[in-house]
Amino acid sequence: MEKRVLFRSGWLPWVLLTPQLAVIIVFFFWPASQALLQSMQVQDAFGTSTEWVGLQNFRELFNDPAYLESFKTTAWFSLLVATLGIGISLLLAIFADRIVRGAMFYKTFLILPYAVAPAVAGVLWVFMFSPTLGVVAYALEHVGIHWNHLLNSAHALTLIVMAAVWKQISYNFLFFLAGLQSIPKSLIEAAAMDGAGPWRRFWSIQFPLLTPTTFFLLVINMVYAFFDTFAIVDATTQGGPGRDTAILVYKVYYDGFKALDLGGSAAQSVVLMAIVVALTVVQFHYVEKKVQY
């Protein structure tokens, strides 16, 4: 029988929801409304004078070639971070799920990157790939690859993608490992007895049962690539060389706090928020149809 919680008073459910509603209003709706208001204004660097300009900031944004180029950079970056992060994490989870001896050591080792702050992760990768001091750059030099992310845009984009993926792998790994361990072993054993090989068992049994987890991680990784990678970009390339790795979230910071274009920065944040909301809606509307619950 279906069990439901019945409240005797009409106001008690709202009282229980009040803390969560307060957090959402204070930390999401209020900042979002302020960003929308500031995106239609022009302010001086100190915020002492304000002029209402309507949609002028948005028109200037989409007439700016540098801003349009940042869309392309962000699209490539988010696509690489999401696909590589999910793919590598799934592969590591499959291997870790099959380990019998020393399994706890390997699992603990794989979740350690999640405890590292994004800025620290960026600094670690900068040191490893430093053209003058980095051990990885030194090794690449011996195989004919002259690594220099300070001058080469492709190297710089590769560096921030690797750092962002490494930082997120632990999070994805935990969910995939939990999903794999929740699959009944009897299904895998029955398929093995029927002659299905490891790849066939994974593709026909395990992966379909992991689609809810994969869909959840797809949404999370897209949001992560758009928002939570700011510290990594700032610590590794600072949007360089030039503005070739200035993804949208970093350009919001640069134009607002360094170029002191507060209205333009607010307009960029509104556009970025709209893009992420639209991508999330599209994912839930189209991708979720292929999820098997």
Q: Would you state the CATH class?
A: Mainly Alpha
Percent of residues in helical segments? over 70%
Structural class: mainly alpha
Structural domains: how many = 1
Q: Indicate the CATH topology.
A: MetI-like fold
Q: What does the main sheet amount to?
A: 2 strands, antiparallel
Oligomer: single chain
Radius of gyration: 23 Å
| Major beta sheet, strand line-up | 1-2
* Uncertain runs: none
CATH architecture descriptor text:
Orthogonal Bundle
CATH superfamily grouping: MetI-like
- Secondary-structure element order, N to C: HEEHHHHHHHHHHH
Residue-averaged pLDDT: 88
| Number of E-type strands | 2
Global outline: globular
Number of helices: 12
Cα distance spanning the termini: 21 Å
Q: What proportion of the residues form beta strands (DSSP E)?
A: under 5%
GO cellular component, one term: plasma membrane
InterPro entries: MetI-like, MetI-like_sf, UgpAE/MalFG_permease
GO biological process, one term: transmembrane transport
Domain ABC transmembrane type-1: 71-283
Description:
The chain has one domain (57-290): MetI-like (MetI-like fold), CATH 1.10.3720. It is 71% helix and 2% strand. The protein has helices at residues 12-38, 56-62, 65-98, 103-111, 118-128, 135-142, 153-181, 185-193, 198-228, 230-236, 248-258, 262-286; strands at residues 41-43, 50-52. It has a two-stranded antiparallel sheet. The chain starts with 11 loop residues before the first helix and ends in a 7-residue tail after the last helix.
